[in-house]
Every structure is written in structure tokens, then in C-alpha cells.
Design goal:
By secondary structure, the protein is α/β, with parallel strands linked by helices. The chain contains seven helices and eleven strands. The strands form two sheets. A seven-stranded mixed β-sheet has the order 3-4-2-1-5-6-9. Strands 7-11-10-8 form a four-stranded mixed β-sheet. A hairpin with a 4-residue loop joins strand 5 and strand 6. Helix 1 runs antiparallel to helix 7. The protein is elongated. The N and C termini lie close together (10 Å). The model has no long low-confidence stretch (mean pLDDT 96).
Amino acid sequence: MGARLVVSIEKGGIEICNVYFHWSANTLDAYREMQKLTDIIETSEKTDPVLAIIYGLAKNGGGLTPEDEEFAKRRWPDEDIPIAKNRNEGLVAVSAEQIAYSERWAEGTSTIYLDNHTCINQLYNYYDSWQEMKLVYQLNDYNWQKDWDEAHFSNFSMVKWLGKPVPWAHLDDAISEIDDSLEYRNESGNLFFFEEC
């Protein structure tokens, strides 16, 4: 068991690696893991973002997934690549086979885009409006509460970033706006709900 999050790292429209976290597949932790990874990329002495992530995560027991050790030796023959000791701290997959393997285990996903320094959290439940939510509940015989009307949903916390690409510089804002609630709305009336896998 676990709450398996996989964060994809993309450059030029290509997934250059991904990182598996065993207990982070929820709305808030996905943002926190992406912030940790972007901080590593921005502060590392390594210019290769994949190496930066591997070495950065290794400081707390994460690192390269053991299955990619031989692949990494061929790709970076002059590096002593740290192998992960703790899947909770991040397993970095770099070969096409291991990237696909990590994705098969994912219960939630998020993506970091290196080209434009944005990321997107894909871990949330969403409805276009409260009316759509009500229709889904009715069609599925879910329990719709009598007090769930427009006024009820207008009291949800307002969010700006959930469901949109977040510039790395605004990850603190994205975390702050969802940190104290499980229910959110945006200016367009869309409804979002905290998701935990």
C-alpha cells in the first residue's frame, strides 16, 4: 500500500525522468514534492537537472532507482550516482522502461516543466459548477445535502492556482491557498476538492 505519487520532469515536450514518492499522492503533498524538486534544480551545482534531482534527493535517502543503475553508469560514466535507500524520499527513474514502470504504479501524478519553469498539480477532484456536481450526485444516487446550494459553495476557499500551471516562484502561494481547507472554488465558479489516494 501507499499513496503513490509520480512527478514527471519534462523538457522540450519529452519526459526526461520521473520521481516516485511512496506516501505523497494527495493535493497538498504533490505541491510540496514539486517545490522540493524545483528548489533542488534551482540551487544545485549540477547543470543537468536529472543529476541535480538525483543528488539532491540522495541527501535524505532518495536517489536513483536501483533498477536504473546500469543505465546511469552508461549515461554518466564519470559520475558516482547515488542509489535510493528510501522510496519515501524519491526514486528517480531515467530509462524509458523504468519511467513507464513508475507511471504504472502511480495513484496520482504531477508534472514539472523545465522549459517555462511551471508545474501542474493533477491531484484534485473537479466540477465545472455546483449544478454539475449536483447532477453527478443525482445520476449516481449519491447523498446530496439539502443545504448544498449556491450560497453553500460560495463559502468555499478561493483558489488561483489549483488546476492551472504554477510558476515555480508561486509554489508557496499555491501551497498556502489550499493548506487550510479541503474544498475550493475559483473566480469562474469551478469547484475543487482535496484528493487523497
